[in-house]
């Protein structure tokens, strides 16, 4: 039970860590000063949430593990984030599409997590949902602007939605730990969010004058630790300091 | 991209003007606490008012500086001409009697 809860927390937190790292990569590289700051703000929101989750996970583990150990010292296969969040920052359209497809899920997930029997998780959800509702607003806004902006932006955002669509289904898969936690009244049954998710995403895409992709071929594996080739590079950068200078602090 | 598709795109009317190389400049005013006035915090670029508000939120209130934001496109501000400073402002320099400093204010009154 304890072990399942630990795994369950990582299943939530790893998504925010990896997406936060991706957004953090934009620091100093955003398309404009304003979007640069916006993206790094979002990154810091996500890292803030991650800390709460990992601190809780470290407490559950009950050994000498710290939040930093959990964040920095696992191997690639031990990260259980969905494939969607590790996809690279190809261009601004990809960044916004990835963010939007995750935000919509994230928002709906946290709404449900607020009702968790686990008071720590429900408290983290209540705190995070305000941040995430802004993230969703920001990314939805950009989906519409890019979709209904220019020919160039339209075709770029269309490509990125089409490409990333294949990673959306995995958001609604239940792992073994998820199932145990759902039964305990702690976890969220994400399978129930699926229909509403696709309806809401489609509404925004239509507003953005984009077609909803019809592809029914979906990728999965992240939740089991089987990742795309992109995660290794991301972790190399994320973990560099702790690997090069073990136990380094500042 | 199929040919028909391209044709359709050509006729498509786009809603947002994100393409402009230089986005217009906006002035940002932030109310830092309820009861205080909005103060000028700085400026930023955005294509429209909605984006200006979001950008202002991220650029100027991320360290908990505000409870309300106003944005106005900089071109709508009429500024005085520095060349006219002499006639506009210098005459006021030697008129201390225009300051209300000769009244005693009760301590309870703040922000005066």
Give a structural overview.
The complex is a heterodimer of chains A (250) and B (112). Chain A has 250 residues and is mainly α. Chain A has helices at residues 2-24, 33-61, 67-72, 83-86, 92-113, 119-147, 151-164, 176-183, 194-207, 230-244. The model of chain A has no long low-confidence stretch (mean pLDDT 96). Chain A has one domain (2-244): Ferritin, CATH 1.20.1260.10. Chain B is α+β, with helices and mostly antiparallel strands. Helix content of chain B is 23%, strand content 19%. Chain B contains three helices and three strands. Chain B has helices at 3-11, 49-60, 85-89, and strands spanning 25-31, 38-45, 68-73. Chain B has a three-stranded antiparallel beta sheet with strand order 2-1-3, covered by helices on one side. In chain B, strand 1 and strand 2 (38-45) form a beta hairpin. Chain B is flat and about 70 Å long. The model of chain B has no long low-confidence stretch (mean pLDDT 85). The chains are: A mainly alpha (250), B alpha+beta (112). Chains A and B meet through helix 2, helix 6 and helix 7 of A and helix 2 of B.
């Amino acid at each position: 039970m304890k072990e399942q809860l630990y795994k369950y927390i990582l299943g939530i937190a790893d998504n925010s860590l990896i997406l936060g790292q991706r957004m953090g990569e934009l620091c100093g590289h955003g398309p404009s000063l304003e979007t640069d700051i916006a993206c790094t703000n979002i990154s810091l929101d996500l890292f803030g949430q991650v800390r709460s989750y990992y601190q809780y996970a470290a407490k559950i583990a009950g050994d000498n593990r710290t939040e930093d150990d959990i964040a920095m010292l696992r191997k690639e296969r031990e990260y259980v984030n969905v494939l969607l969040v590790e996809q690279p920052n190809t261009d601004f359209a990809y960044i916004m599409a990835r963010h939007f497809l995750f935000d919509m899920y994230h928002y709906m997930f946290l709404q449900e997590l607020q009702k968790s029997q686990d008071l720590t998780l429900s408290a983290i959800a209540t705190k995070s949902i305000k941040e995430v509702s802004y993230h969703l607003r920001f990314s939805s806004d950009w989906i519409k602007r890019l979709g209904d902006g220019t020919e160039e932006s339209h075709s770029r955002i269309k490509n990125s939605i089409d490409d990333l669509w294949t990673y959306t289904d995995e958001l609604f898969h239940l792992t073994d730990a998820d199932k145990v936690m759902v039964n305990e009244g702690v976890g969220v049954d994400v399978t129930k969010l699926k229909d509403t998710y696709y309806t809401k995403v489609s509404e925004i895409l239509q507003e953005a004058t984009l077609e909803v992709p019809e592809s029914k071929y979906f990728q999965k594996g992240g939740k089991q630790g089987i990742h795309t080739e992109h995660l290794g590079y991301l972790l190399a950068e994320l973990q560099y300091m702790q690997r090069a200078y073990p136990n380094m602090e500042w | 991209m199929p040919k028909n598709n391209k044709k359709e795109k050509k006729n498509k009317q786009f809603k947002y003007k994100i393409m402009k190389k230089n986005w217009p400049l906006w002035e940002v005013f932030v109310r830092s606490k309820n009861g205080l006035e909005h103060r000028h915090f700085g400026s930023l670029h955005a294509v429209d008012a909605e984006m200006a508000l979001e950008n202002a939120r991220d650029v100027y209130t991320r360290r908990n500086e505000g409870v309300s934001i106003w944005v106005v496109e900089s071109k709508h501000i009429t500024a005085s001409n520095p060349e006219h400073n002499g006639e506009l402002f210098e005459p006021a320099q030697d008129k201390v009697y225009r300051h209300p400093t000769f009244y005693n204010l009760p301590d309870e009154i703040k922000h005066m």
